[in-house]
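FAQ: What does the model actually see?

It sees only this:
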Amino acid sequence: MRKFNDLFKKYSIVPTRYEFFKNVTIVDTKDKKYVIKEKKREDKTPIFNYLNSRSFDYYPKILSDNMDEFEIMEYIEQVDMPLEQKMLDMIDLVALLHSKTTHYQEIDEEDYKEIYEDINNNIAYLYSYYTDLVAIAENSIYMSPSQYMLALNISKILGALNFCKDEIDIWYKLVKEKTKQRLVVLHNNLDLSHFIKNKGSYLISWDKAKIDIPIFDLYKLYRRHSLDYDFSEIFKRYEHSYPLLEEEKKLFFILISLPDKLEYSMSEYQMCCDISEIIESLVRTEKFISPYYSKNTK
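And it is asked to produce this:
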């Protein structure tokens, strides 16, 4: 490939075979394989330098430098394993990442207030949105299947919103007088396809990495995989190595309990599928978090 020629010359790579995928190209040589991808972030060096300074080097070795248009890294062969075990291995590595990069930063009350108001506004919007949808359905001469399904399950959606409303008030009381916040490096793009297990464990696709509170890695992973796996064991595994603070855990439970907005579709079948997925997600989330609340009431 002509666009890679300068890169190959620079790093003395003699390709023998190419494999093209959506976002990456796998290049074979006589002795090794390499992964080439277009850079999405101009300079990831600072994040990797910081990870190395914290003794976290669980990512493929990168050969290219900041001046290169493409990123070239070593190829690591994936070992076949059950997906449930792969998920647990990945969450172990995420807990290690958070543990290795934990630090504290001064925070102003206004920062917490902004989070509080944003979530409250979202709750109010979703409450109004869903009650309007049900009102329209109830005023219809004949309900469509999706309208009937929504009306039948509206109590589950509104119950989740009421829970979030109560909990965000409790969360704000916990944090509004705090002056420091616990921060970590977030991978910020967790997915099983971004975890490789071989002799060691590796995270790839660090383009969205940033510094923030630890729950956002868990939140994105939950939203992506909550219908695929039982998150109870995954969360316990994470907390065994990196326990969340009370206010972090509460905010995490609030965020995953917020129902998605039901988007309109021309297909009645798709609308029914989307409603079913929203309800199933709420049921699974309630089942996941309820033991943590029952403990508090004993």
